[in-house]
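Quick one: LRP1B protein from Anhinga rufa, structure tokens please.
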Amino acid sequence: KLFFTDYGNAAKVERCDMDGMNRTWIVDSKIEQPTALALDLINKYVYWVDIYLDSLEVVDYQGRKRHTVIKGRQIRHLCGLAVFESYLYTVNSDNLSILRINRYNATDVQSLARLDNAKEIRVYQKRTQTAVRSHACEVDPYGMPGGCSHICLLSSNYKARTCRCRTGFILGSDGRSCK
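--- reply ---
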């Protein structure tokens, strides 16, 4: 799945398949300017920062179990968000500090470091990497991902795929080749 935020005409947090199909709103009320977004892949939670409402909130992948992790003026300048173990990591763009927020006890907020021009944050750790299994977009014997001549996108599950073409090309009737 792909998770993303939008604060155009109607602010929301959404999810869809990797090929863009099955687009679903998971948060569409009491939300104004969702910016940073992070996933807890283990427990299947979505965290986001709303800089207009000064809140950091969480829901499960279906948009249920919503609650506020932390609220207040300190949220206004947060950009970038990452989840690791019991903590959320974020960047305060006002003073360029890296913050660590306990996602179960929001009174536990620590400034860890300062970085010039930081706008995003990621945690790279072996335990955060999911095991790779065989999938529909694996390269075939001819070197084509999922048998697609240009782009292979996973669809509703790891066994299904959709072929797409680069700009200026159209998908052939076979659903794999681009012309």
